Amino acid sequence: MATLLYSATMSLDGFIAGPGGDMSWLSEYVGEPNEAADRLLSRIGAILCGAVTFFGDDPNRGTDAEGAFGGQYDGPTVLLTHRPPVNPIPGVSVATDLHAAVECAAAAAGEQYVNVLGADVARQCIDEGLLDEILVFTAPVLLGDGVRLFDRPGGERVTLERIPGEVENWYRVLR
Ligand SMILES: NC(=O)c1ccc[n+]([C@@H]2O[C@H](COP(=O)([O-])OP(=O)(O)OC[C@H]3O[C@@H](n4cnc5c(N)ncnc54)[C@H](OP(=O)(O)O)[C@@H]3O)[C@@H](O)[C@H]2O)c1
Q1: CATH number of the structural domain spanning residue 119
Q2: 28 Cα–ligand 1 center, Å
Q3: How far, in Å, from the CA of 172 to the mean position of ligand 1?
Q4: DSSP string spanning 83-104?
Q5: Can you give the residue range of the structural domain that contains 162?
Q6: pLDDT > 70: percent of the chain
Q7: Is 128 in the pocket of ligand 1 (CB under 6 A)?
Q8: Residue 120 and residue 71: Cα distance in Å, rounded?
Q9: Whose CA is nearest to atom 47 of ligand 1?
Q10: pLDDT for the residue 65
Q11: pLDDT of residue 31
Q12: Distance 120 CA to ligand 1 centre (A)
């Protein structure tokens, strides 16, 4: 059974994108050695990606580093959107419903990770009790504003536990 994990690089003040979806700040940190990211990457069987992330800012667009994990991920992707693209995108399945998207990504991932990309999708996964793990990398920058790692006004408390032997910000979601 696949494990559903939300990963992101977050500014120290809690944002994964700057105002207007700006991701230019991230390019400074992409390419830095990161053993936990490498470990995760080797275990990702599918990506579940929100449409804002999928079609959004990529500071590496047009280079070899374009795409998820600085261009190093080349497996299946499930795009979650209410507005499926008119033309098929190679390697990308489209889902218009959260549960269908998770099922599709989990089937593609097998026993590996489904990596969720996008705070909106991750929030829904948490609220639906679907998320198993969270891995957060912290970038030494304060963005001041933008898209929060989790934005759940009025949301219920979710308890996390560190994963033994893993880096500090790799957590299991307790249900
Ligand atoms: N720092 C990092 O490591 C990192 C990683 C990933 C992403 N990012 C950035 O973080 C930002 C994430 O943006 P976000 O959290 O606002 O959006 P998101 O999760 O990437 O995508 C949200 C979009 O997905 C679609 N969607 C969401 N739930 C759906 C559902 N249940 N059914 C059908 N479609 C659904 C909708 O698109 P439609 O309007 O098309 O229906 C919605 O607007 C982006 O700017 C991205 O570039 C940063």
Answers
A1: 3.40.430.10
A2: 22
A3: 22
A4: S--SS--TTEEEESSHHHHHHH
A5: 3-173
A6: 100
A7: no
A8: 22
A9: 53
A10: 86
A11: 74
A12: 5
